[in-house]
Amino acid sequence: MPKILEKEEVLNGRGHVVLYGSGTSAGGYFYRELVKGQRSYRQRRIHGVSSMEEAVQAAVDVAFQLHNDKPSPQVAALIGSTGSSAQDRKTYQKQIVTRQPRKQRIEDAIESFLKEEQKRVDVGLLAQKTQTQKRITLTLHLLPYLKNHKCISYTNQIKETTFRDYSIFRANATPLTRNNEISQIKDFCKNYLVKHRLLSADLLMDRDFLKRNQIKQVDKMRNPAICSEDWEVIVRYIRGEYRNSALNLPNHRIHYWRTLFWHWILFAKNSGMSPEEILRLKWKQIEIVDEGRINSKGERETWEVAYIYTIRSKTKQAREIPVNQARELRRWKKLQEQYLNTHAIDTKISKETLVFGNPHNSFKAYGYSNYQRSWREAREALQDKLKGHRFSHHHYTIYSMRSTFIEDHLLKGTPVFEVAEMAGHSVTETQKTYAKLNLRKKGAEITLPQLGKQVRHRVKADLFE
Prior knowledge:
The chain has 465 residues and is of the alpha+beta class. The protein has three domains: 4-98, no CATH class; 106-215, DNA polymerase, domain 1 (Orthogonal Bundle), CATH 1.10.150; 228-444, Intergrase catalytic core (hpI Integrase, Chain A), CATH 1.10.443.10. It has 17 helices and 13 strands. It has helices spanning 52-68, 73-80, 86-93, 106-122, 128-149, 166-169, 175-194, 201-205, 228-244, 252-271, 275-279, 326-342, 368-381, 400-412, 416-423, 427-434, 443-447; strands spanning 4-10, 15-20, 28-34, 41-45, 69-71, 96-98, 286-290, 293-294, 300-301, 304-311, 318-323, 357-358, 364-365. The chain is globular, with a radius of gyration of 30 Å. The chain starts with a strand and ends in an 18-residue tail after the last helix.
């Protein structure tokens, strides 16, 4: 009996993942189940894993694969025959008849999967944005790829090499975007096709099936931080020309939106919150405190700081962020109230009201696409005036303001732990992704020669002399 080095219960006790000692012939990770009514186990090796955590995650697929394998009556009889030799029994044990995958139209499978995902959204197990991204990937990219590029109409036509050209098909997308799409397609294959017996579980065990692209450091900078010169250009344009050009338009809602967008980007850049968090932000989550400060005359002056209480949607991490936006938030609330009075809108702003809501729709949030569109309009209008990030070829995005907040604090000397806490990141993620410090600002300190100092001759002392 091989020696078990590690053992973990999976599938609510239905089976176990075991690690056999490398000194045995079995060596490696296996999924095994106790055969009912017998004192024996059914087991199968878990390939392509290097840790117990990875083996536990892969155990579901291996268990499904194990139960799909069923020997024919003839083979079963031969295996159980007392007259057969040990070598014959080993040979016959390999002669297993695998159940063929069932058949369903690709578009029907996609739609059924998305309906299942929507149920998870309805009970709060999945974010609506994630479900929307899955729908875009599966309907706008996967379906055309399979039907038009690979001439595949049914699920049982998917083979080992089906997705080998997917990265070529999506060559215009960034490597990170392609990897996200591949992950979503793999999720569709694993949690719908395999579980409904529309795809063989063996395919998911193949390392080359739905293989992700290699990501370089420069690819991770798709949301580059905005340099201070470019930020001044952007804010000046949105506050001035972009906003004022809507004053003479017949629809006053456009000017309101552009005023909202101006305050929205100020808040996003100075809080480091994700766009999804800001869209859900209510006035009750903001507390303005007069921290006070002493001027050059020794007199106390008012210095208000806005403290934001929020929970990051991605990590569900609750945190408090001090933001230098008290004056801007007061101004924005006053502009909202003036707009309601001017246009006789019978709605009042309360603590439960969204900070950046739509007064013409009961102060519900504007769609995320509205913010993306306005940002793209401003960026395109200023494309000849923006320098861009010197380490990234990507355009500034909505998320660039979050990157700017993090990099600005790191450059200012704010401890990494505090930056990670405000951003809702782990310290490791903050250092790995955002700590691209601007050494040019420290160039003088680094390169300045030491002048006027005498060279000291160091002499070691021996305590035993």
